[in-house]
Amino acid sequence: MSASAMDLKMDEAAKVLADPTAYADDARLHAALAHLRANNPVAYVDHGPYRPFWAITKHADIMAIERANDLWLSEPRPLLATAEADDLAKAQLEAGFGLRTLIHMDDPHHRKVRAIGADWFRPKAMRDLKVRVDELAKRYVDKMAEIGPECDFVTDIAVNFPLYVILSLLGLPEEDFGRMHMLTQEMFGGDDDEYKRGTTPEEQMAVLTDFFNYFGALTASRREHPTDDLASAIANGRVDGELMSDVDTLSYYVIVASAGHDTTKDAISGGLLALIENPAEMARLKGDLSLMGTAVEEMIRWSTPVKEFMRTAAEDTEIRGVPIAKGESVYLAYVSGNRDEEVFDEPFRFDVGRDPNKHVAFGYGVHFCLGAALARMEMNSLFTELLPRLDSIELAGKPELSATTFVGGLKHLPVRYSLR
């Protein structure tokens, strides 16, 4: 860190950002973030086992950094991980094996790799897919009716609906869906006692090995026998006329198959909990389904499944007058940006008609979420099917959030309901 950083005394509130358990405690997390926005919006954090970073908690600063992608780079530290995990990931990449997804890349390579899958998420592709998504939404609401009057909405409904959508788009066989779900839980749940595979970075990296073994076989199959699915597009994708490297190809599958459903699961379950906890907004939306578009955006803002990304300064710069040296990293606190009092009117009020809603839950700029349109459509379809059939719903137990510093949300949402 720079000399200015070394002289700083760390704000105790900033420690929550380097504590996975804080993300399982909304009250604790948001109290700390509100303090930082008001008193220390560019906060120095040196809290092991993570390397130091600067926490960026204001919406305007997050947006400015996302826009300046030539100054603020994804490599070599795209997300918060322990120093040990960072070192292991670097060593693996240097050895030709490791994770290098779109979130790890910078332009111009990022732009070229992103283009390989982009057509599958453009408006025309979404229109073509909508009938199938609506059918699946009905299937899972029907399932909810069948297993009622109680269920764990996360494990029974919210995870399976988007999982089925994205893995069908990839062209994976349905018998493999459970395996993909388990690996996703283990990868994003490395800080959560219920989900993590092991306690060491090596044990957790074994999850990546399992992903790569599966997708390596899939790549070979799709190159030999291409089919009309996203998996074939990835397997046969070319950059500058050459097939993508093994690392880039396998990593592409991993990010689509995992983040492509897990983040949507978090937004769906977080959205339902918000409706349950705000019955007036539930009644408002049920009475006027034309609000579904704004309601979905509010659910996404409210839940913010991706908690952060990180960027590294390509040269000496500053934020709000605070000097940031070349090579230092910033933590973009999306959860905080989405509750910024200067951007959102009453940010802690859940409002299904909120407009405008300039949330940063999908990121911004060149790294804007590739699957944002699909996530929005899935949520719109599910809640449009569910709410008119829902006579009543209440909590049947305590909701549980996952411990994480990256992607997460509700892992259990027990509900009691009456459904037509």
From TrEMBL:
Keyword Iron among record annotations: yes
Gene Ontology MF annotations: cholest-4-en-3-one 26-monooxygenase activity; heme binding; iron ion binding; steroid hydroxylase activity
Pathway this chain belongs to: Steroid metabolism; cholesterol degradation
Alphabetized UniProt keyword annotations: Cholesterol metabolism, Heme, Iron, Lipid degradation, Lipid metabolism, Metal-binding, Monooxygenase, Oxidoreductase, Steroid metabolism, Sterol metabolism
GO annotation, biological process: cholesterol catabolic process
Keyword Heme found: yes
Entries under Gene3D superfamilies matching the protein: Cytochrome P450 (1.10.630.10)
Swiss-Prot/TrEMBL cofactor(s): heme
Origin: domain of life: Bacteria
Record family assignment: Belongs to the cytochrome P450 family.
Descriptive protein name: Steroid C26-monooxygenase
Organism the protein comes from: Mycolicibacterium duvalii
Origin organism lineage: Bacteria, Bacillati, Actinomycetota, Actinomycetes, Mycobacteriales
